[in-house]
Structure formats: C-alpha cells, structure tokens
Amino acid sequence: MIRKCSFIFRIDTMSTKNRRYYLVIAFSLLFLSFFNTGWCCPDGWTAYRVSCYHISRDSQNWFNALKMCEIHDSYLVHIDNVDENVFITHLLQTSNTNNTWLGATDWTVEGTWLWEPHGHKMDYTNFAPGQPNNYHTQNCLLMDAAHHYQWNDLGCLTSTRHYICERGQNTGFIIG
Ligand SMILES: [Ca+2]
Ligand SMILES: [Ca+2]
Predict the structure, then answer these.
(1) How far is CA 44 from the centre of its chain?
(2) How far, in Å, from the CA of 147 to the mean position of ligand 1?
(3) pLDDT digits over 61-92, tens only?
(4) I want to staple 119 with a disulfide (CB 3.0 to 4.6 A). Which of 114, 123, 147, 172 is the partner?
C-alpha cells in the first residue's frame, strides 16, 4: 500500500495577490516533489535523503536477492558515500540484522567492484581489513557485523543472507 500525503490550503480567505503568490508556491512544491526528493516511501520502507530502503525478512543468495529487489521495483542497495554507509549500518543495528548483501560484485574482473546490475563505478568503499580476499572465489559484497559493519566479499551462490532493496522516492506520490 502506498502512503498518502496531504496538505491543506485555505485560499478562500486570501486576497487576490496573496492567492496568486501561494498558488505559485504550491505549484513549485508540486513540481519539485515530482522531480526532486519527494516526501514519501511505501509502507515498510524507510526514507533517507532521496531513497527508500527495505530490509528483507527472508535470506537469499546474492542473485535471488538482486531479483527480489527488481521484482519490487527497486535494486539491491548501492552505498555511494560515508553518510549512506552510516545510515545502512544504523538500519541493520536497529533491526537486529547481523549482515546484508550489498548490490556490488567483482564478477567481471577480479578485484574491480561495480554496483549492479548496470556496472556503475564504485566511488566509495569501506572494506574490512584483509578484505576483499576472494577466498575460494568470492565475488559478491556483504556488510557484516562480524567485521564491525565493514564490507566483506562472499560467495554469491554458496551463502544466503538478508538483503536491502533501495528505490527512489516519489514513486506513488499522491496528493489528496
Ligand atoms: Ca572476487
Ligand atoms: Ca572475503
């Protein structure tokens, strides 16, 4: 279910000049809500900056996690900067989730990590000391409490973990 957002304007009590002024503001806000940040996430998703995040209740291998996020109109989470990394860490801690798949692999070139599924360059990293180590061929990315919520590479198919899906805000924005 999509959360509904509403606001009230009492334009009937305004002068013509003020009415015009407030209508310009209202339409500007409406425009920004569609093309910028928006204000709402669907039920069960947590808003942070321009995105909504959902921690899975199930555990899957990395590929199934990627697919499940796609089915739900989202993608396996990308962490683009330290602020988002702190937010995701806090999300895990407050939900008592020990670890989560992140949406990156070095499947194409060993040691070159990209955000999937479109292969976006990884500008920010937070690997734990000694990781990634590609132990017995590890090509998928995990954030893990056992590594103080830093990142570790893990086998994509041989491990099942919780996962976080990310989607942009605005989807399903309704005024009423
Ligand atoms: Ca690897
Ligand atoms: Ca590893």
Answers:
(1) 13
(2) 18
(3) 999 999 999 999 999 999 999 999 999 999 99
(4) 114
